[in-house]
Design goal:
Pfam families: zf-C2H2 (PF00096)
Subcellular location: Nucleus
Main location: nucleus
Distance between the termini: 120 Å
GO cellular component, one term: chromosome
Structural class: alpha+beta
Strand order of the largest sheet: 1-2
InterPro entries: Znf_C2H2_sf, Znf_C2H2_type
C-alpha cells in the first residue's frame, strides 16, 4: 500500500516516485504493470495488433489525443496566424514560447515533459530498461522505439509512397520530403529546415559553440554525432557487421549506407533532374549543383563550400592537422577516407569489382572511373563550351580553365594552382618527398595516380582504346592526344604568335620560347632548360649511365627517347608524315625541320651575325661556329664535334 504523508503526497511502493494526486499514482503504476486499459474505438485493436494503427494506451488523455490522428481534427488555433494544430502543446512549439526552465543549466523548453527528459541528462538516470537486451533509456518512449529493432516492427506508414517507419517522428520528417515543408527557421539568418535537430545544429555555426567534448582527448564538437564518430578513432570499435559480406562499421548509419551497394537501391531522387542517390546526404549535396549555393565558409581564408564537413577538411590545409593515424605504419592523414584507402596498401584488399570485365579495385571511385572505359559515358557537361566529362570532378577542374581562377597558393614559393591536388604535388618539389611506391620494382612517385600508370609498364595493360582505329593506350591522356590525329583539332592557342597545339602542356612549353623562361636547372653545371625531359637527357652527359638497351643490337642509351628513335632504324618505322609531300621521318624534330623547306620561313635568327634558319636546331648548331664549342665527344677516340649528325657519322668508322 502506498504511504500517505501529511501534505497528501503519495509514494509508489515499487520505485519510490511521489505524486500529489492519488489518481496520478494509479496511472503511474501502469508503467510497472504494462497494462494499457484504454483502447481506441476507431481502430478497435488490442496491444500491438496492427490494423490501422493498433495502439493501446495507459492513460485516458492519450487515447483522446490519439483519436485526432484518425479524424485529422485540429481543434487548437494560433491566435497570431490562425494556424490549426492537433495538440495544445503544439501551440507553444509553433509560437516559439519556452516557459519551462531547467534550474541547473538554464535551458528553456516549450513543454514540461521535454524539461523532465532534459533533466535526466544532468542526473544520468536511465530508469527504463529493454527486457530483451537489457539496454537502459532515460525515457519510456525510447524503450518502445528501441524494441522495434528486435521485432522489426514499423507501424507508421507514409500514405504517399508507402514507406514504413519505426517511430512517428521518422514518418513526420519523411513526409516533409513530399511536401517540401521546412517549419523550423533560424532567427539569425532566416534559413529554414525540415527538422528541429538540423536547425539546432545550424545555429551553432553562428555561435561557434561546441558543447560535445571527447572525454579522452578533450576535443570539442558542435554535434553529438560528430563526437560519436570521433570516439571510434580512439577505440577502433566496429560493432556493426554487414550480414552479406561481413564488412564491419563503427556507425550503424554507415552499415545502412553500405548495404545499398548490395541491393543497388537508390531511394532519394532529385526533383529537378531525376538523378537518384542511395544516401539522402548525397542528394542534398547534389542539389547544390542546381542552386549554386555554398553556405559554409572558411573563417581563415573566406572560401565557401557546399557542405559543412568540407569546411572542416579544408581547414586542415591551414592547420596541418592529420587526425587519422594508421595503426600499422603510424602514417597520418587529414581525411578518414585517405586512411581507409592507405590501409589497403597493407592488406592488398580490392573489394570493388567491375561486373563487366571482373577487374577489382581498392577504391569505389576507381571502379567508377574504370566503368567509363566500357560505357564511354560522359554525363557531366560544361555549360560554357559544351565539353563533356565522365566524372564531375574533372568537369570542376575544367571549369577553372574558363575562369582562370587559381585559389591554391604555395606558401613556400608563392606559385598558384587551380587545384588543391596540383598544389600538393607541387609541394613535393620543395620537400623531395615521394610517398607512393611501386610494389613491383620499388620506384617512388609524388602521387598515387602516377604509380597506377607506372605499373602498366610492368603489366603491359592498355585499358584506353581508340574507337576509330582500335589503338590502345596505358593513359587516358594519351588516348585523348591520339584522337586529335583523327580530328586534326588543335584547341590550345598561343596568344602571342597564334600558333595552335593539340595539348595544353605543349602550349606551355612553346610559350617559354617567347618568354625565355627555363625553369629546369641542372644541379651539377647550373645549365637551364625549357623542358624537364631536356634536363633529364642532359644529366645523362654527367652521369654517363646508359640504362636503356636495344634488344636487337645491344647499343645503350642514356635517354629512353633516344632508344625509341634508334629502334626505328631496325624496324624501318617512320611514324611522322609530311602532309604536303607525304615524306616520312623517324623523329618528330626531323619532320619539323623538313616542313621549313616547304614554308621557306626562317624565323630563327642568329643574334651575332643575323643569319636566319627555318629550324631552331640549325640555329643552335650555327651558334657553335661563333663559340667554337664542340659538345659531342666520341667515347672511343675522344674526337669532338659541333653537330650531332657529324658525331653520328664519325661513330660508324669505329
Amino acid at each position: 500500500m502506498p504511504k500517505e504523508r501529511g501534505k497528501s503526497v503519495y509514494d509508489c511502493d515499487i520505485c519510490g516516485k511521489s505524486f500529489s494526486v492519488k489518481v496520478n499514482l494509479a496511472t503511474h503504476k501502469f508503467t510497472h504493470t504494462g497494462e494499457k486499459p484504454h483502447h481506441c474505438d476507431i481502430c478497435e485493436q488490442k496491444l500491438y495488433q496492427y490494423d490501422i494503427c493498433g495502439k493501446s494506451f495507459s492513460q485516458n488523455c492519450h487515447i483522446t489525443k490519439h483519436k485526432l490522428t484518425h479524424t485529422r481534427e485540429k481543434p487548437y488555433h494560433c491566435d497570431i496566424c490562425s494556424k490549426s494544430l492537433i495538440r495544445r502543446s503544439a501551440t507553444l512549439t509553433h509560437t516559439g514560447e519556452k516557459p519551462y526552465h531547467c534550474d541547473i543549466c538554464g535551458k528553456s523548453f516549450s513543454m514540461r515533459v521535454n524539461l523532465a527528459k532534459h533533466k535526466l541528462t544532468h542526473t544520468g538516470e536511465k530508469p527504463y530498461q529493454c527486457d530483451i537486451c537489457d539496454k537502459s533509456f532515460a525515457r519510456r518512449s525510447a524503450v518502445t522505439v528501441h524494441k522495434r529493432i528486435h521485432t522489426g516492427d514499423k507501424p507508421y506508414h507514409c500514405d504517399i509512397c508507402g514507406k514504413s517507419f519505426s517511430n512517428c517522428s521518422g514518418l513526420t520528417c519523411h513526409r516533409r520530403i513530399h511536401t517540401g515543408e521546412k517549419p523550423y527557421h533560424c532567427d539569425i539568418c532566416g534559413k529554414s529546415f525540415s527538422m528541429k535537430f538540423n536547425l539546432d545544429t545550424h545555429k551553432l555555426t553562428h555561435t561557434g559553440e561546441k558543447p560535445y567534448q571527447c572525454d579522452i582527448c578533450g576535443k570539442s564538437f558542435s554535434r553529438n554525432g560528430a563526437l560519436a564518430k570521433h570516439r571510434h578513432t580512439h577505440t577502433g570499435k566496429k560493432p556493426y557487421q554487414c550480414d552479406i559480406c561481413g564488412k564491419l562499421f563503427s556507425l550503424k548509419g554507415n552499415l545502412t549506407t553500405h548495404k545499398l551497394i548490395h541491393t543497388g537501391e537508390k531511394p532519394y531522387q532529385c526533383d529537378i533532374c531525376g538523378k537518384s542517390f542511395s544516401v539522402r546526404v548525397n542528394l542534398v549535396t547534389h542539389k547544390v549543383i542546381h542552386t549554386g549555393e555554398k553556405p559554409y565558409q572558411c573563417d581563415i581564408c573566406g572560401k565557401s563550400f557546399t557542405q559543412r564537413s568540407t569546411v572542416t577538411i579544408h581547414k586542415r590545409i591551414h592547420t596541418g592537422e592529420k587526425p587519422y593515424h594508421c595503426d600499422i605504419c603510424s602514417k597520418s592523414f587529414s581525411r578518414c577516407g585517405y586512411l581507409v584507402t592507405h590501409k589497403l596498401t597493407h592488406t592488398g584488399d580490392k573489394p570493388y569489382q567491375c561486373d563487366i570485365c571482373g577487374k577489382s579495385f581498392s577504391r569505389n571511385g576507381d571502379l567508377a572511373k574504370h566503368k567509363h572505359t566500357h560505357t564511354g559515358e560522359k554525363p557531366h557537361q560544361c555549360d560554357i563550351c559544351g565539353k563533356s566529362f565522365s566524372l564531375q570532378c574533372n568537369l570542376s577542374k575544367h571549369r577553372l580553365t574558363h575562369t582562370g581562377e587559381k585559389p591554391y597558393q604555395c606558401d613556400i614559393c608563392g606559385k598558384s594552382f587551380s587545384r588543391n591536388s596540383d598544389l600538393a604535388t607541387h609541394k613535393f618539389t620543395h620537400t623531395g618527398e615521394k610517398p607512393y611506391s611501386c610494389d613491383i620494382c620499388g620506384k617512388s612517385f609524388t602521387h598515387r595516380s602516377a604509380v597506377t600508370v607506372h605499373k602498366r609498364t610492368h603489366t603491359g595493360e592498355k585499358p584506353y582504346q581508340c574507337d576509330i582505329c582500335d589503338k590502345s593506350f596505358s593513359q587516358s591522356g594519351d588516348l585523348s592526344t591520339h584522337r586529335f590525329i583523327h580530328t586534326g583539332e588543335k584547341p590550345y592557342h598561343c596568344d602571342i604568335c597564334g600558333k595552335s597545339f593539340t595539348l595544353k602542356v605543349v602550349l606551355t612549353k612553346h610559350k617559354r620560347t617567347h618568354t625565355g623562361e627555363k625553369p629546369y636547372h641542372c644541379d651539377i653545371c647550373s645549365k637551364s632548360f625549357i623542358q624537364k625531359g631536356q634536363l633529364s637527357r642532359h644529366k645523362g652527359i654527367h652521369s654517363g649511365v646508359k640504362s636503356h638497351h636495344c634488344d636487337t643490337c645491344g647499343e645503350s642509351f642514356s635517354v629512353k627517347a633516344k632508344l625509341t628513335n634508334h629502334k626505328r632504324t631496325h624496324t624501318g618505322e617512320k611514324p611522322y608524315h609530311c602532309d604536303i609531300c607525304s615524306k616520312s621521318f623517324i623523329q618528330k624534330g626531323h619532320l619539323s625541320r623538313h616542313k621549313g623547306v616547304h614554308s621557306g620561313m626562317k624565323s630563327h635568327h642568329c643574334d651575332t651575325c643575323g643569319e636566319s634558319f627555318s629550324v631552331k636546331a640549325k640555329l643552335t648548331n650555327h651558334k657553335l661556329t661563333h663559340t667554337g664549342e664542340k659538345p659531342y665527344h666520341c667515347d672511343i677516340c675522344g674526337e669532338s664535334f659541333s653537330e650531332i649528325d657529324h658525331w653520328t657519322t664519325h661513330r660508324l668508322i669505329h
